[in-house]
Design a protein that fits this description.
Elements lengths: L10 E5 L28 H13 L4 E5 L9 H9 L8 E6 L4 H11 L3 E5 L5 H8 L4 H13 L6 E6 L8 H6 L7 E6 L18 H6 L4 E2 L10 E4 L6 E5 L12 E4 L4 E3 L8 E2 L7 H10 L19 H4 L2
Length: 319
């Protein structure tokens, strides 16, 4: 599907739940969230129906998100059913997870047809990880990373939200992980969404800080359309480093995605409060997706005049 500005929209991020087994400080309120009723979140059958309609419209990549998608009952079966769309044009079925539960289900995910996983990990230090996740155990994430490797959920990417005064002193250590491991460590600029919208400015670091800290990084060719990460590598490293900079150097010209929240709202742009409600479309899911694609703006206005902070937290959107 081509949007109003000539971009090929071929990537759907589909959130299956707003619940999570962690409460990261930039993602969720300290008190947590109340579990929604069955009628307030998308049924599994609807999620699968959206995926089928999306592939018919030309979507070639689907990523399941949350919250934490692995806490949703029935997620393995959903993946198995969506994976069957690979016979109809789907090329990539991924999942973004905090990795806590991966050690118990990585093999099942692979057998069900999942292509790859992205694992969120904002600190390698056990105390700091427990602090930002409000109680998480980073050892569980390490076990999940190992399970993903053994299950061959490739390419394996680790997502690190860059936070000034918190994990910026770990940049070199994260980059060092790519020396002997065939993984991609991706640094993502902290975005002013939900809980983080009122954080101090000093917490928002430009992604160029990575290059200042690790000047040995070698730039790799830019992939162009659909790519949000600028890739680098250390000399003779097995892995790569990705830098994602939605604030300091937006990639709106290459944006190829739409997002659907767990309560059935389609967001044409992550950084806008504009949403389309699936309830207004009945069973016409293709029209729902078509209208969402056509509603995509030319670019976000995070740093522009009249910017209105996004009301939803990231767990409610799906990243």
């Amino acid at each position: 599907m081509i949007d109003s500005f000539g971009r090929d929209i071929n990537y759907l991020r589909l959130s299956v739940t707003d619940l999570c087994n962690l409460k990261c400080t930039y993602c969720m309120p300290e008190k947590g969230i109340a579990k929604k009723g069955r009628k307030e979140i998308l049924r599994l059958e609807t999620i699968e129906g959206i995926a089928r309609s999306a592939v018919k419209l030309g979507i070639r990549k689907i990523r399941l998100t949350g919250g934490e998608p692995l806490v949703r009952n029935g997620i393995i079966e959903v993946i198995r059913n969506i994976a069957q769309l690979k016979n109809q044009g789907l090329k990539d079925l991924g999942l973004t997870t905090n990795g806590i539960l991966l050690k118990d289900c990585a093999d099942q995910l692979k057998m069900a047809g999942l292509t790859r996983v992205n694992i969120s990990i904002d600190s390698l230090d056990s105390r700091k990880y427990a602090k930002i996740t409000r109680g998480g155990n980073v050892s569980d994430v390490f076990a999940g990373i190992q399970a993903a490797k053994e299950a061959k959920l490739w390419p394996l990417k680790l997502n690190v939200v860059l936070i000034g005064g918190f994990n910026d002193n770990e940049i070199e250590e994260f980059v060092g992980m790519t020396m002997e491991e065939d993984i991609e460590v991706r640094f993502i600029e902290l975005m002013p969404l939900g809980e983080a919208s009122i954080w101090d400015q000093e917490n928002f670091l430009a992604s160029t800080e990575i290059l200042k800290r690790v000047p040995r990084l070698i730039p790799l060719p830019f992939k162009g359309h659909g790519s949000v990460a600028r890739l680098y590598k250390l000399p003779n490293s097995k892995g790569k480093v990705g830098i994602i900079s939605p604030l300091s150097s937006h990639f709106c010209n290459y944006c190829n995605r739409i997002r659907i929240t767990p309560d059935g709202k389609l967001k044409p742009c992550l950084h806008s409060n504009v949403e389309l409600d699936i309830q207004n479309y009945g069973e016409n899911l293709e029209q729902f997706l078509y209208d969402g694609i056509k509603a995509k703006p030319f670019r976000h206005c995070i740093q522009g005049d009249g910017y209105v902070p996004i009301l939803r937290n990231m767990n409610e959107i799906g990243g």
